[in-house]
Amino acid sequence: MFALTSLVGLPVNIAFYGLIFVFSLYFQQINGWAPLSTGLAFVPMMGAGLPDNIIVPRLAERFGAPAVIAAGCLIAASGCVALLGIKPGTSYWAICAQLVAMGGGLGLLVPPLTSALLGSVEKSRSGVAAGVLNSTRQTGSVIGVALFGSLTERTNVFMSGAHAALIISAALLIVAAGALLSVRLHPKNTSRGGAGSRKMSVS
After folding, report:
1. 2-202 topology per CATH
2. What are the boundaries of each domain within the chain?
3. Is the dihedral of CA 132, 135, 203, 123 positive or negative?
4. pLDDT attached to residue 154
């Protein structure tokens, strides 16, 4: 569980931070928005994760952390797929719901991801575990910006690069969800790492 939750943080952040970078360029360079308007465009996306913090503990207790994290990945992936129809001049209101789905998926998966990772190690090693998770997440964000930035670096091929970034993000999130669901279907695999792991497998 420790290795899995650590690694899941990598593709998740490649997708989210990479796409935030891409859509920042899309709003400003393609649609001609001001930087302030671009920043405000992400408010619904980020705000969608706030209500998740209220319901996530109950969902994780009932269905288990891996299932909830996987659900968050799939919701975010559906938002990526639904955005494949964007083009220059697409109305913000035509893509707002998809951005909200991505933000809601992120809010759904981050708390149980962190909890599952910290619960899979002894308390004395929780600081190291948190450091590993943050390292993989930061590495993912750097890779996402670099990779998706290279796909969209030229204005004349920006939209094809943006579509490729959405496809890659959806694929990464689906793969992460599949890995988590495989753990959910085979809970014995999570029971080898001590008391924390046994607690997570029971939940």
Report:
1. Growth Hormone; Chain: A; (1.20.1250)
2. 2-202
3. positive
4. 83
Nearest residue to 149 via CA among 39, 11, 8, 23: 23
Closest CA to 181 of 11, 67, 63, 59: 67
In three-state secondary structure terms, 4 is: helix
Q: What is the pTM of this model?
A: 0.86
How many CB atoms sit inside 10 A of residue 32's CB?
10
Mean per-residue pLDDT of the chain? 88
For residue 17, give Cα distances in angstroms to 11, 41, 47, 151.
Answer: 10, 15, 16, 14
Q: Give the pLDDT band (50/70/90) at residue 49.
A: confident
